[in-house]
Amino acid sequence: MMALAEDPAALPGHLDRARSELDQAEAELAEVPLAQLTAVPWLGRNLTATATAVDQMQVLTEEVAPVLSDAAVLLDFETLRLRDPGSTVGEWRTTIEDSVDVIRAAPGAIDRLGEVRTAISEIDTDGLLPAVRDAIEELELALDGAYGRVAPVRKTFSDLQERVRDGIENFDLLDLIRNLV
Is residue 157 within 8 Å of residue 110, measured between CB atoms? Predict the structure, then answer.
């Protein structure tokens, strides 16, 4: 998630690698007879925790990260300002017009990140194998950090969303500029 702030243009490459690794993990899990093995108390919980983590990371890479990647290209998440709005009112309007889909999708993606974070934090790690427990706890910390960085951005996108809800032509661009600068 650091790439959202530091180099949002590089995110597609990171996402491709993450998707590939998740697909590989999912394929490996599919080879395991989960239904039978989940009945084994000490093994079943580990497999269930792993499957939950893989499923949630799929949600993250398929639903959340692509939207947040586009959002980070539009808006600097640290300063909460448009990255390259242009220097004229016409360029600002074009930037916003070109970004309406991202503006509308970003609050939902941030909410979905919160849901993924909650799902991971609800995994009971007591009694899991150390490797599984450590991976789940590391993932939980990473998601907490990521959510902490993007949650404040939700309001900015919600404000933008309110302004474009009825169409780009129906809001006062000068008010928008004042609010973002």
Answer: yes
